[in-house]
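[Q] Does anyone have a clean structure-token version of this?
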Amino acid sequence: MGFFTRWTSKGGQVLFCFDIPLILRDRLQTLFLLPTIIPKLSDIYVPHMLVIDEIIKLFDRSVWSLRNVIRATEMNRPGTIQQEPNFPLLHDYTRHTIHSSESLDVAIDTMAGILSQHKWFLDAGRSYIDIDPIVLRRTRQHLLFQIQMMRSLRARSKANEARLRNEIDSAFNMIAQYDSKTMVRISGAVQNDSTAMKTIAVLTLTFLPATFVSAVFSMTFFNFTPGNEAHPEAWVVSEKIWIYWVISLPLTIVTILFWFMWRRKFEGR
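[A] Here you go.
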């Protein structure tokens, strides 16, 4: 919305309004025709005062409607992670509250400028025209009240921003807490798996030596002949036993090297 006023020393005033809602236009037309307002129009800042009154009402509805939405969000806060927070909606609310605070900051700066100019008019400007000093003082008092109202609404808007940030932080903390509990459960499961692997390793180490010895001596490179009355028992090792070592030792070394290289490549990722 934009407003522009023009005043003449003969008492004529023109107020131009741009991009204002129809309801505000109708309200201003009604206000300027009230019998109680017409005598006050000798003060050139009375139109500003009337317009600002209506703008404050719009700000009030906007700020408190956002407050009601935020309160509903706080009341319906997800109790468990299964009820996922609606982060896009929360950020959308935050965007609106930031815009509301920005608009109020600009309005307060504008009001400060109006008050400064009205003070000059109260001190010196009224010497150019005949205006009732009581009307001027009442206008200034009302302008001071209006700027205080805007500051109060800005404080409410800033509180809305803080409450929304608190809701977003609370949602993030709830998700982080859930992830932390999940990691604890995963850690417990990994610990159980580690215990199971240790058990398997112990069993393997227990039976592997005996299995190896059994496998070696069951090969055809070894021949055991039981004894009888004619011949004593005999244990014969084949001269080709070297073939076993020639094949098994290089194969074992190649397997270990392959595993070592694969592990280094995997850890490098």
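[Q] Thanks! Anything notable?
[A] The CA atoms of residues 5 and 48 lie 8 Å apart.
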